[in-house]
Amino acid sequence: MNIVIIGGGRHALVVRDCLLSSPAQIVGILDDRIDTGTFVGDLTVVGPVTSLTDLKHRHPALHGIIAIGDNHSRRRIAERIAVMLPGFDWAKAIHASAIVSPSAHIAPGAVVVAGAIINCHAVIEPHALVNTGSIIDHDSRLGAFASTGPGVVTGGNVSIGTGSHIGLGAVLSHGIHVGDHAVVGGNSFVSRNIPDHTVSYGSPARVIRSRNEYDVYL
Q: Which of 175, 172, 173, 120 lies closest to 148, judged by CA?
């Protein structure tokens, strides 16, 4: 299997490290904003995203992984590619140092970074990002296009909605539900449910304001 990384920022190198233990061959990076032939670390930009169709013809078993930290941008790219190439195959990238329960489910497109722990019966949905050292405990769910910052800890049976972001070092108590497109600030302690489209932070975390799903948060 060949893999193309979509997105040429420094997060591409994080994703590359997650793929080192995979037998797949990385064919390069696609990025609309970086000139073809440019090196990102030891990876080469092989064209803009529109060149994916041609790349797929040359590599029939090609899979992709989106290396963009921002949740909304990651979803926008995935939707764009779904129109260009319906049924395109997504890879999953799991760092060799991550601990993943055999009963956990990691969906295509998801990235699990170094030192993460995914406990039993947890679900990581498509294109979600589990960042460095994060712990997703038993029976918890990280929604599609959602993400955790480094060092996030969830209790058991926690649900984090589509496109939501949990900031660096935040802790979510058992059974908490975070709605869709919500943001929880770094180092917060979440002891009650968080509604959709909100920004919350503090210890205990409380809702500070509403937000749109495309608002900047990183």
A: 172
